[in-house]
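for the writeup, i need someone to sanity check this before i put it in the appendix. the sequnce is what the collaborator sent (i think, or maybe the updated version? ugh). structure was predicted straight from it, no edits. if anything looks off just tell me and ill rerun, i have time this weekend
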Amino acid sequence: MAVVMLGQSYTSWFTGDPVDAAVPPLGGTCMMGGASEFDPAMQWFLHRANGGDVLVLRASGSDGYNDYMYSDLGGVNSVETIRFNDASAATNPYVAERIQKAEAIWFAGGDQWNYVYDWRNTPVMDLVNDAIAQRQIAIGGTSAGMAILGGCYFSAQFGSVTSAEALSNPFATNMTVDCTPFLHVPFMAHTITDTHYDNPDRRARHFAFLSRMAQQGDSVVYGIACNEYVAVCIAPDGIAHVYGEYPQYEEFAYFLQMNCVPPVGPEVCQAGMPLTWDRNAMAVKAYKVPGLPGGNNWFDLNDHLAGEGGMWEDWSAVGGTFTTQPGDAPPCGPTGVRSEDGNQLGAEWDPIAGRVHVQDLVPGSTLLIHGMDGRVLRRGIADDQGNCRMTIPAAAPGLLLLKGERRGGPHAWKLVR
């Protein structure tokens, strides 16, 4: 039974042990397509709380997650749902305290504009981002809660938009593609999500979202989407596992990226005109991954190339008509990192997405990324093979210092975004 607290600006339902668990969270991101939650994926998410406390944030609805997470699935110390009754809850001290004590935060469905309007540039945004960056909490959401997890997002400020509307006019009033800094989720920079992909078919509108990002000059553009009953669970190492009930049902996740062969941007993407983004019928590369009950199929968000169990498709549009066809992987890979003397570091560095993969470290040693003011922005541990992958915060400065213990001794290198 949940304990209910009423405030002027929020309502809280609490289930479980009121004593804070204060355990180290395990990180990771879980995104669901918008229908009922798929238990194995939600269990993955709860496990990332490491027996700690889960906080559900929502702008509508009530305590439906409490018994489901705490009793039906279990393994956590407590589950608390806080519903924001108005925007002033974003500055409420109790809400701030609960965010600071959570090992995992889940964003419920609803209308994502409520989240963007109520939370952007408020203490809620700052506290959630700090919890992700400093404590490596687990983060997740479904439907609207998934929509807000990308570095760019469809804000739905003026309501939803159909695929047909997006293709006929990619700058329609309700095509609210927003890249104003909001939530900084690992591996989600320069990425826009979409949900309910199969009901209705939203592939074309998601394609149009990417065209808007490309039109504004982004040199790297990504997308992640789920069919309604599918979940994508991203481990801290950047491997995204896809959960679903394929082949019993047609359940897929999609990983999109702008093709890297120049020229790359849309041919026609302007107000009042049908979208043309063709580029030899290969404007966007999509990796379509069946969701399995155990999450066995995966895609690597470190290089956006490696995967298991999926198939590549080419997506394009001419005069507002959207087309998909079987395709191949993008022909371009990440760039290497070099030290100041020009020698190869043994790493891959994606300066746009802010991801670095360092190799040949001493197993178990610590890899640090410093700002030029000396602050530690990220730390990682080399695995048994001497590899370490990290994502640099989107707000980090352009010049960074990477320090690690290689087999030949300590090294430091400059990274420029």
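The mean pLDDT is 90. The helical segments are 39-47, 64-73, 93-101, 112-119, 123-135, 144-147, 163-168, 203-215.
thx in advance!!
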